[in-house]
Amino acid sequence: xxxxxxxxxxxxxxxxxxxxxxxxxxxxxxxxxxxxxxxxxxxxxxxxxxxxxxxxxxxxxxxxxxxxxxxxxxxxxxxxxxxxxxxxxxxxxxxxxxxxxxxxxxxxxxxxxxxxxxxxxxxxxxxxxxxxxxxxxxxxxxxxxxxxxxxxxxxxxxxxxxxxxxxxxxxxxxxxxxxxxxxxx
Length: 185
Known about the structure:
Blueprint: E1 2-6, E2 13-17, E3 20-22, E4 25-27, H1 33-38, E5 47-53, E6 59-65, E7 73-79, E8 81-88, E9 99-105, E10 111-114, E11 118-124, E12 129-135, E13 144-146
Antiparallel strand pairs: 1-2, 2-10, 3-4, 5-12, 6-11, 6-13, 7-10, 7-12, 8-9, 8-11
């Protein structure tokens, strides 16, 4: 059984799998296709991705893929803690350009469902953080895009000063929302 919580943007969901513990440790069914379907979420995931970030302040994002490789993502943390961000890029949405920020950790065991039409990124809040996420489409290099993490129009509080963030060169060069083509209508 999954507990599904709404966020400020209804398309983005927090999913909390049950965790059963005893003196040996714990067991958790972190993904169940039938459980998701019972919760009204009917997605077929085709790939699992796993990242490890060594230092606090590692920022990955904001990323998305356009059609035909647009991805829904189900994100969870197995070690450490992140601030996970989803930015609405659906041009016809009343929440276009707004974002949801959710803390995910190995301790709180929550997952974030980021649907197609959203840019996604996260910053690590603990060292040696590991993030796993399922996606509904494979990587498509020609359809791989990004959004500037520091765009003032987005108003994202990454919880750390920008000069303490660790980014790839690629993630420092993404366009701002005003300069981004409208990939999702």
